[in-house]
Amino acid sequence: MEEPLTYEDTGVSIDKAKRWVEEVIKPLAKTTHRSEVKSGIGGFGGMFGLRADKYQNPVLVATTDGVGTKLKVAFMVGKHDTVGIDLVAMCVNDLVVQGAEPLFFLDYFALGELEGEIAVSIMQGIVAGCKEAGCSLIGGETAQMPSFYAAGEYDLAGFAVGIVENDKIIDGSGIKVGNRVIGIASSGLHSNGYSLARKVLFDKLGLKVDQVMPELGCTLGEELLKPTKIYVRTALNLVRDCEITGVAHITGGGIVENLDRILPKGCKAAIIKDSWEIPPIFKIIQDGGNLPPEEMWRTFNNGIGMAVVCPQSQVEDIISRLTGLGEKGFLIGRISRRQKGDGKVEIT
User: Rounded to an integer, what distance in angstroms lies between the CA atom of residue 194 and that of residue 82?
Assistant: First the structure.
């Protein structure tokens, strides 16, 4: 008689997944919990209490994102402890540009087989990102899907919720002609443009991830896996104490597309391209792929991870404050009146 088939035979281990939750996820997640968390990992849904006495007219803000093909570099290098930080960063940075404080985070981790060492590294990165952002990891999903992913490969998605007082929302509507644009330095490519970067660096130039690049001061793999900077504490500090009229997270689409998203009708941003030093990785990609400047500006952050719009009177204080917070800030442009036929963001 033929042996009965089990779920385990297909490559999905319920017992392994249960141990994974109990022995890894629960202890790690608990280290991120704020006092508002009302449930532990393992329930059908995470619960987070809102303190009514703390807010007058609160608005919840929700975001979702992934790490994209940067994961391919992690697979190549065999290093998985930073992509979880990227995952959190891509979500919480989108919250904070609207003035919202991140409250909690959930992850979706899909893979072919639950491999302990790799999975633990990924979760440790997610937890590190949540701690840096000041939010709680209250739930998620680990999906085992044999034959769907190649051996050793996986995908990540994240979901974050934050809160902001209704009268403190930053949506760009306060931006005025004469405002200035301050750029906050990125830590590298962050988590955007990797499909093009990989095409140029690995396919066209034939570089290797373990190749030491003197102009970078590290191997190519180390440069490409630098985690996306989490700007939460910095941005919340600025919006609390300074007059900020708009903030843009410079992600896919670069400065051109992301500043465009917050500019009100009748305004345009003139960005001065030589007002900050563009990190060498971007020049390597541009020269190696013979990429036109327009392609670089619309694909990569080019060294600016966040853009802050403010009145001219606030510029000196904000840049000084950024230095005190351990960030590099640059005056990179100004807001002017948009004439018929003008682009909303111009690089000059």
Answer: 15
